[in-house]
Write the structure tokens for this entry.
Amino acid sequence: MIRFENLWKRYKQVEALRGVSLQVDEGELFSYLGPNGSGKTTTIKILTGLAVPSAGDAWLHGFHVEKESLQAKRQCGLVSQNINLDHELTVGENLHLHGKLFQMPRKERAQRIRELLEYIEIADRMDSPVKSLSGGMKKRVMIARALMHSPRILFLDEPTTGLDPAIRRRIWSLVKSIQRSGATIFLTTHYIEEAEFLADRVAFLDEGRIVTLDTPQNLMEALGTWALDRVADGDMETLFFRDREEANRHIAAHEGSFSLRRVNLEDVFISLTGKKVMT
Amino acid sequence: MSGMLAIYQRELLILRKKFFRQLASMSVSPLLYLFAFGFGMGRGVRVGGHSYLEFLIPGLVAMNSMIQAFAIASEINIARFYWHIFEEFQAAPISNISYVTGEVLAGITRALFSTVLILSIAALSGVVLSYNFYFWLAAALNSFVFASLAVGLAMLVKSHSDQALLTNFFITPMAFLGGTFFPVDTMPQWVQHILHFLPLTHASKAIRAAAFGDPPDFSSYLLLALLCAVFFVLAFHWVNRARE
């Protein structure tokens, strides 16, 4: 379980987080959605010990992230936004060192490395230097590394940024299967479809504040089922309808260019903040 | 303990992967100094009853062990700013003392490896001095001082260029002024006073005395041990400064 209360983070003149509070339940796949600079990565950095909060408290499975940092760190695995593998070392060596950092016995490390490389489908690349892998493979190795010590919480900070759509979907399947194994997952993303596909609940973050929090379904249903984009006189507006017939009646009664589609989380974010998530 | 060993093992693995590049990099400057100053300028010169080459070798050991121990700062910065591996250490359940000890041990290992390299080159040149317990103790203390300083400063710098500035302003001047190439006691009195503030002056003095089989001046060893403790404690405290 992840819990944080009134988290603040100031970087000189910038307030990256402004009093955010949240609880993520055990086994939940929670998504933190927001544009770049909204405070998503800062939250993860505080929760994983990479940053110090300016104010507020956070707990991972009951362990305070500052006062009981070593116990708190044992609860979680982190997949950073940047590819932070040792490129000079092999895949196996990267995983082995991670296991050692988490005090895993040698035998257990070797066994877990074999299991994880099978799991991420690159068992044949154990002795390959990381620098020889593709971007998608490196991300999968990072996920395997974060899972080495069997953490109860997995933090994924924009895990699919920069990957092509096919690889992205492969990572999604992997994330879903990790959740099925019982882990709690905290995922940051600015890809709307990623949050829609994966998350049990979503929090929208904007300028360091949570603007709304609910299941993707509830958030979208609050707006409607259908979104009608209308372009008239060079301006675009989006209208929301409960049913398709209602939207069609609106099209028949008005002039302009129309595009009818299902409501998505981007619509929710725009309706709340006036901004797009993907900026 | 396991965390400290993981940090140390990582640095050794990197060293092993880049072994021949590292070997070449560690050898080039001592070889140049040996040829330029030892065989070139210093031929026929005697210092305190020893040939200049015999005088130079312990100085090169002190200088190179300092440079190689301090070079751990560059490795840490590459891990921090380029590969972002440092995040992996920050997110791991290891204490600051484990991290600092692992990195300092890696710095000492590099330094002692470079010492063996210089002594091998010296032996090939026909210079064999007394490599006794006090010689290795002084070399190890010198390496410890600069490896701890390197780890501490690596936590404070914000970029690679900051790191280069530190090397240019502190390490390079010390390499030339710390009793490496000339005896400090031939300098004017006021210059000697200044040079005695440099840890390398004491390291050169201790390493040279041991290599010549002279009785050790324990004040130099004590000062180096004190600096080891001070820089290690500072490094330990400065690890937290690297957190955002």
Notes: The mean pLDDT of chain B is 90. DSSP finds eleven helices and two strands in chain B. The interface with chain A takes residues 2-3, 5-7, 9-10, 13-14, 17-18, 83-85, 87-95, 240, 243-244 of chain B (CB under 8 Å). The longest strand of chain B covers residues 46-47.
